[in-house]
Design a protein that fits this description.
It holds the Pfam family Glycos_transf_1. With 369 residues, the chain is α/β, with parallel strands linked by helices. It has two domains: 187 residues, 3-Layer(aba) Sandwich (Rossmann fold); 174 residues, Glycogen Phosphorylase B (Rossmann fold). The protein has 14 helices and 13 strands. It is elongated, with a radius of gyration of 22 Å. The two termini are 18 Å apart. The model has no long low-confidence stretch (mean pLDDT 95).
Length: 369
């Protein structure tokens, strides 16, 4: 029986945590012995299959009183003890600090370490301390899983070999959604209201769209992140007297019913890893206008003019042009939407699991040679 271990901070509900919990459960069902090594237990976490063993590798009672440097090395020590005790065939780390910890704890052992990059490296992996750690630690990695081509290029030459690009699995409820016979005259968007999603740019772009198409509305679904973005949106709406045609819809548990009603889907982020909201919109067969944001998430899954339209980031004029184009050319819009829906072939849970399984099996086999 092959043994694999995942390492991350906790399993609180988030993108990386969802991927790890799903993968751990699937590997366990496939007969692998699976460990999930976490730093702490949080509220509202994803559930693990009873066959998955969760192990605490974080700070212990009394450690919190120690200084920051001591706590840093204790975290490495405890993870190293875990690796020595359970000796998995491969250790997979998720997220930045977990990547560093895993390579420090096991990078010189006979346990191969696969790291994963989950965000835009620019701004997250380019501080001086990161550059030092990357140069020292990343060559120890047996492999890396990226989400986008841009991420992979950023880490050249340290992580080009033995790496893979694997998407996040899309929730199956977004696949096979039937589009209405007649779509509403609405542009739709769903994401947290947060600065890097740049919904203010989308609102300003739509005000220009509305001048040409006054019968269309913009519906923005998503919860408030409380970083001030919602207040900025409300100010834009008020200053432009747009209360009747720019609608902040709040969060929804039925996006698979609401989003497909729209005529056009708009994605406006300034940067992302691999955005789940974009993958979900594609899965639902939406005609999409998306910013070509770093680190290449949209460009990894979209080809301009084939399964959506790509526009420059922070460019409200180009966003407005793209939205208007799909409003005015419904034949093009529906064709792009049908092509976008083909994302199901590579982003369904089974396909993503097979990619991970085949890659990890390859890493394990290579380490035993």
């Amino acid at each position: 029986m092959k043994t694999i271990a995942f390492h991350l901070n906790c399993l609180v509900q988030g993108g990386a945590e969802r991927v790890v919990s799903n993968l751990a459960n699937q590997f366990a069902k496939e007969g692998y012995k699976v460990y999930v090594a976490t730093e702490w237990v949080d509220q509202n976490e994803f559930a693990l299959d009873e066959r998955v063993t969760r192990v605490h590798v974080g700070l212990r009672e009394g450690d919190e009183k120690k200084n920051r440097i001591t706590k840093f090395f204790l975290r490495i020590k405890y993870l190293k003890e875990f690796v020595k005790k359970y000796h998995p065939d491969v250790l997979i780390a998720f997220a930045q600090r977990a990547n560093y910890r895993a390579l420090m704890a096991a990078g010189n052992s006979d346990v191969p370490v696969v790291i994963s990059i989950r965000t835009d490296p620019v701004g997250h992996y380019d501080a001086l301390s990161d550059k030092v750690q990357i140069k020292w630690l990343f060559p120890k990695a047996a492999g890396c899983v990226f989400q986008t081509t841009g991420q992979k290029e950023f880490f050249k030459p340290y992580l080009q070999d033995n790496s893979r690009i694997i998407l996040n699995p899309v929730n199956p409820k977004y696949f096979g959604v039937t589009a209405p016979s007649e779509r509403e005259k609405a542009v739709v968007h769903h994401a947290r209201l947060v600065d890097f999603k740049n919904q203010p740019m989308l609102c300003r772009a739509f005000i220009k769209v509305h001048e040409k198409h006054p019968d269309y509305v913009l519906k923005i679904y998503g919860p408030d992140s409380f970083d001030g973005t919602k207040e900025i949106l409300e100010k834009i709406i008020a200053e432009n007297h747009a209360e009747d045609y720019i609608l902040l819809m709040g969060g929804s548990d039925e996006l698979e019913k609401e989003i497909p009603k729209g005529a056009v889907y708009a994605f406006s982020s300034d940067w992302e890893g691999m955005p789940n909201s974009l993958l979900e919109a594609m899965a639902m067969g939406m005609p999409i206008v998306a910013t070509d944001c770093p680190c290449g998430g949209p460009r990894t899954v979209m080809t301009d003019g084939k399964n959506g339209l790509l526009v420059p980031i922070k460019d409200e004029d180009k966003m407005a042009e793209g939205i208007s184009k799909l409003i005015e050319d419904r034949e093009l819009a529906e064709r792009l939407g049908k092509e976008a829906a083909k994302i199901e072939e590579i982003a369904n849970a089974d396909a993503v699991f097979v990619q991970w399984r085949d890659y990890l099996d390859e890493v394990i086999a290579r380490s035993k040679r």
